[in-house]
Amino acid sequence: MTRDLRFPLDRPSMPSLRFGPWETLAAVRQHLRLIGAVTLAGLAVGLFISWRSPVQYEAVATVLLVPAKGRLQPALQVQAASVSRFGVLVKSSKVIEPVVRANSLDRSPYSLDVRAFAARQVWVEEVKGITALKVHVALGDPTLAATVANGIVQGAVAATQQLLLAPDQLLALREKALALQAEVSGLKEKIESTQRHLHDSETLELLLDAEHSRLQSIKAEIRRRAPQDTPALNAALESQAVASQAAIAALERRRAELAKATPRDGMLAAEQNVLAERSADMDRAQKDLRDAELSLGERWDYQIVDRAVPPPQPVSRGTTANAVAGVLAGCLFTAFGAVLFELVRIPSTTRIEPT
Q1: What CATH class has 57-164+299-306?
Q2: pTM greater than 0.90 (yes/no)
Q3: How many Å apart are CA 4 and CA 173, to the nearest integer?
Q4: Helix, strand, coil percentages for the chain (3-state, nearest 5)
Q5: Domain boundaries, the chain
Q6: pLDDT tens across 314-349, in order?
């Protein structure tokens, strides 16, 4: 009589499985026709994906960044940052949208979205060793691809000239940043004062409660004692009661003063919201000021050293890569399924060592 030990395999006391490399190879050989069929199907899917991919022509234009006349060569980190900023400007909607509309790419038969076009069909390559960028544009028409690539680099170069600020504009940015900084400092001081008043009010309420309790205790002690009983002690209690009442009156006056100076409920939250908004405005103003100062200190001349020309051949549609990926996916997936099927199907007596 044999026991079916197929399912409770996670017990530590169970014997080990005898499904090694030879058994795996046997399972693959047994399902070789199925593996071959699925592999061919994967190859067909890869080829179909390549066939369905549209034909694209890639045009390339190169822009060189050189220091403006009278400017020294900046440090390597500054050069890299300037090249990176120019690359971001090339892919911005401000540069690409006019080119898309001028070439009717937003209408039939292209009907391209500006953001999708910038993300999928325009990319920037930084040339190592020099401050240069290559702008790639992929479209189905080689002449149109070259025209769009040249239009994008020309628009980016023109946009960089618009970003350079005059000294009076820089002064206005600096004054705006300083004014916002002063406003934020004033709001912080006001909020700190409000928080101190609120803390003093809470402390004052605790002192009032304690003084009222003390006065009640003194009055209860006076009522408990007879008038003729220890006159000196009764006089002392009366004196303490009078002092306690005076302290309560002083605390009440202080509470009234704090009530006038302390904002009403919700005022602190409103002030904190205003502070958050002004702080964000200050951060943006300071960033604009830093960018403006950097642009004035890093004047570049942008030269289009290699204009895009219509490419003679389309880019590869990845036929080989898609075919290899389809073959590998079909083969490995089916082989793994065959091994798993045999692992479950083989009787347990052939897979478990005797105890």
Answers
A1: alpha beta
A2: no
A3: 82
A4: 65, 10, 25
A5: 21-53+317-350, 57-164+299-306, 169-290
A6: 877 677 887 888 888 888 888 888 777 777 775 544
